[in-house]
Write a structure and sequence with these properties.
The complex is a heterodimer of chains A (about 160) and B (about 280). Chain A is mainly α and about 160 residues long. Chain A has two domains: about 1-75, Rna Polymerase Sigma Factor, Chain: A (Orthogonal Bundle); about 75-160, Winged helix-like DNA-binding domain superfamily/Winged helix DNA-binding domain (Arc Repressor Mutant, subunit A, Orthogonal Bundle). Chain A contains eight helices and no strands. Chain A has helices spanning about 5-25, 30-45, 55-70, 75-90, 95-105, 110-120, 125-130, 135-160. In chain A, helix 1 packs parallel to helix 3 (about 55-70). Chain B is α+β, with helices and mostly antiparallel strands and about 280 residues long. Chain B folds into three domains: about 10-45, no CATH class; about 80-105; about 115-280, no CATH class. Helix content of chain B is about 35%, strand content about 25%. Chain B has helices at about 10-20, 25-35, 40-45, 65, 75-105, 195, 205-220, 260-270; strands spanning about 120-125, 135, 140-145, 145-160, 160-175, 180, 185-190, 225-235, 245-255, 275-280. In chain B, the strands form two sheets. In chain B, strands 2-1-9-8-10 form a five-stranded mixed β-sheet, with no helix packed on it. In chain B, strands 3, 4, 5, 6 and 7 form a five-stranded antiparallel β-sheet that branches. In chain B, helix 7 packs antiparallel against helix 8. The N and C termini of chain B lie far apart (about 120 Å). Classes of the chains: A mainly alpha (about 160), B alpha+beta (about 280). Chains A and B meet through helix 1, helix 2, helix 5, helix 6 and helix 8 of A and helix 1 and helix 4 of B.
Chain lengths: ~160, ~280
């Protein structure tokens, strides 16, 4: 991968990767740190990476960084609880999208990743399997479970608000 | 043809495709059959909302430029080329200088030596009238058939008009008890004293200048005495106005000084020389 190719990849995919990271972490500062790490790793491994696989690799590295950050972030659950309290006390001001975002925030990083790769990036289940290095059947099972959980959380939040 | 089986253990693999209508006809029929058998799961699947997350396209990464890499400019390669060329030129000049120096003085060895490689030597007695060999520790051997030639020792001999470095060899027979045969010492380097004596042009090398200024105080009390000293020779090349150091050697031993020797010593000694023991 040449410098020009690397820069092209940055231009093409940085926003997509950032949206995915930001949606997963909910924290702009953490997201920017992860972005720097991910693209630094891509740059360091540019001689081993084929251009056509770069986007998938970016998401894979981002996912791993998100999981690492999630595990090392002990205050995350506290923040989530605060968010839930805010939601409960100001429930009437939230629309469906905001409720969905709140529900999504309560998913595990792995669940978020699989949903976002499908919904944000439009990857096929096969492609998701390749990126996450899991079998196709696992992709379908995991995405079903993640969506079911999301639905359940959304119903709970809707009930709280109403 | 065997009908595909969907059961409680694997139905989750097919739910998404069932909802998205992407199952084959056979699998779709199998799924319908499975759901008919499990009404609670059928209710779950039917109420399943395929909730999708919609990306917010207004979110963009604000620091794209920080991720970009600048291509290396022509100047970068030019700079590298210039550095490489400079290094090569310096190596060339260095080799040329060493080559010229060697041609002027000796024929078979590089004379410029680091102090760390200086051989330990001792001189039992040194005078211009009666020169004695100076022992060294350098010893090497070359084996040819059953005869071993031992380069026994390298010696420095100070004669009335020259400083000679000689190498004596002895030949041993490996298979026999014969006494080793010593060969005549071979002069491997000779430096004429007239060239480096007091009459030569005054040295410019600061280190040597300092040495010469200090020598009288070092030598004066040594006259007419047997003195154990450690002398550090710095032999410079008069052809280069003494700015080119040819050899630096460290010698420990006892000196019996004659006046003429004292006159010569400033040429050789530098400020690292020291008196170990002095006695009459």
């Amino acid at each position: 991968m040449t410098v020009q190719e690397y820069n092209t990849i940055v231009k093409l995919y940085s926003d997509n990767v950032y949206r995915y990271i930001l949606k997963s972490t909910g924290n702009p500062i953490e997201s920017k740190d992860i972005m720097q790490n991910v693209f630094l790793k891509l740059w360091q491994n540019r001689n081993k990476v084929e251009v056509e696989y770069a986007k998938g690799l970016l998401f894979r590295m981002a996912k791993q960084n998100i999981i690492d950050t999630y595990r090392s972030n002990t205050s995350r659950r506290e923040r989530e609880n605060i968010a839930n309290q805010n939601l409960s006390t100001n429930g009437n001001r939230y629309d469906t999208k905001q409720l969905l975002d709140q529900a999504f925030d309560q998913l595990k990083p792995e669940e978020k990743t699989i949903v976002l790769l499908r919904d944000y990036e439009g990857y096929s289940y096969e492609e998701i399997g390749n990126i996450l290095e899991i079998p196709l059947s696992s992709v379908k099972v995991n995405i079903f479970r993640a969506r079911k959980k999301l639905q359940s959380l959304l119903i709970t939040l809707e009930n709280e608000v109403s | 043809m065997k009908r595909p089986q969907i059961h409680i253990e694997n139905y989750e693999e097919y739910v998404i495709d069932f909802i998205e209508n992407s199952l084959t006809t056979e699998l779709n029929d199998a799924m319908v059959s499975f759901l008919n058998l499990h009404p609670n799961i059928a209710e779950e699947v039917m109420s399943f909302r395929n909730i999708q997350m919609i990306p917010d396209q207004s979110v963009i990464y604000p620091e794209v430029e920080s991720l970009m890499k600048k291509p290396r400019s022509t100047f970068f390669f030019l700079k590298r080329f210039l550095v490489a060329a400079t290094v090569l030129a310096l190596i060339g000049v260095g080799l040329y200088t060493i080559s010229n120096t060697s041609n002027d003085i000796v024929t078979d060895e590089i004379l410029v030596e680091d102090e760390s490689t200086t051989i330990k030597e001792s001189i039992p007695q040194v005078s211009t009238a009666d020169a004695e060999p100076i022992e060294t520790v350098k010893e090497e051997s070359i084996q040819k058939s059953n005869a071993v030639t031992v380069a026994k020792e390298e010696k420095v001999r100070l004669t009335s008009n020259a400083l000679q470095i000689t190498k004596q060899q002895e030949v041993k027979q490996v298979d026999t008890e014969e006494t080793p045969q010593q060969t005549e010492p071979k002069v491997i380097q000779q430096i004429d004293i007239e060239n480096i004596g007091p009459q030569r042009p005054k040295p410019i090398q600061p280190e040597l200048l300092a040495a010469i200024e200090e020598i009288p105080t070092l030598i004066a009390p040594l006259e007419e005495k047997e003195t154990e000293v450690e002398l550090v020779f710095t032999i410079t090349d008069p052809a280069y106005n003494n700015r080119q150091m040819l050899r630096q050697s460290r010698i420990t031993g006892t000196l019996a000084f004659a006046n003429t020797t004292v006159a010569l010593l400033p040429t050789f000694l530098n400020k690292n020389s020291k008196i170990i023991n002095s006695k009459k």
